[in-house]
Amino acid sequence: MLNHYLDARVSLMAARLLREEELPVLAEGGAEESAAILAHAGLGRILADLEAGRYLEQSIIRSQLDDVLILMRAAGEGRRFLEYWMQRFELSNLKAIIRAKMSGAPAMLVRQELLDLGFLASLPLEELLQTEDVGELLRRLETTHYADIVRFARRAFEAQPRLFDLDAALDRRFYHGLVELARQQEAVLGKGFRSLMELLIDRINLVWLLRYRFLYKLPSSQVFYLLVPSHYRLSSGILRDLAVRDRLEEVLAALPQPYREWLSESDSVYKVFTILEGKSARAAHAVLHSNAPGFARAFAYLVLRERDLRMVRAALKGRAIGLNAQTIRQAMGLDTLGASPDRQAA
After folding, report:
1. How many other C-beta atoms are found inside a 10 Å radius of the C-beta of residue 179?
2. Are 215 and 228 in contact (CB under 8 A)?
3. CB burial of residue 344 (10 Å; 0-12, 13-18, 19+)
4. How many Cα atoms occupy the beta-carbon half-sphere of 289 within 13 Å?
5. What are the angstrom distances between the C-alpha of 59 and each of 62, 238, 287, 312?
6. Rounded to 5 degrees, what are φ and ψ at 235?
7. What is the pLDDT of residues 224-255, one digit of tens each?
8. Global pTM?
């Protein structure tokens, strides 16, 4: 019964995904056209929140939480995976507090930044806000279920007490945990679920590698240390080889297929990200409209919904600060999409 319920819920939710032809309208169309598209996508509340003076980020996250809470009711063994997946947003709260500790910002200002995660919230945020410094904050976290993530990050921070190193260590350990959870499900959930995880982790690792190596100019040994251990197409062995390359073009030329072909004309880290995000969307569309297990289809929906929300965020932010349509298109990644299937098609 639960599987039937999950399949039915996913099919209903899938009907709200943005169609590819609607994306340029968010960048170039009028306010009424955009409002109609968001309303059809079940995102009308975002505009209402903005008009009421609420933070865009809070409204975006609330939309994601609403979806996850619905799916968790029937996710079965996948519930633990979804709960962990949503911990990304709690890590955002943690990072905001850490930044405040390192900059000396008052707790009152930090509270305004924190995301309201409802019953999924588990961090003692008020206690963390009252800690003396980052060291005490990390020690306090080692008594929570984040202990494994934080222990790795604390060692990195003690070796190099910089915000970047701490942020990167937290992210790396989080995604390592996600990979381990996914590995436990892959045999049951099939190739579709594994393909989505592969594209997600490979994209994260490649974008991080390029950013750390060529934008932040980190040494190759540190770059490799900050990547997510992986058994996917971009395995840890391949990543080690890529990390020693001296130019972006050399890294892209050394990629295994199909990444080498997909990214052959990329000339920036952002273009790499948007191309791989688009490929993930195509894969998710295929899984969503297949006979894959219900949880695999649910995860495919979440991948597509998150992409939709990223584009909505870029469009609304761009409009709010008066960017022209072409700049908004670029921020949404529309110029690298190319022809794409209608995600509403069955």
Report:
1. 17
2. no
3. middle
4. 15
5. 5, 39, 28, 11
6. -70, 170
7. 999 999 999 999 999 999 999 999 999 999 99
8. 0.89
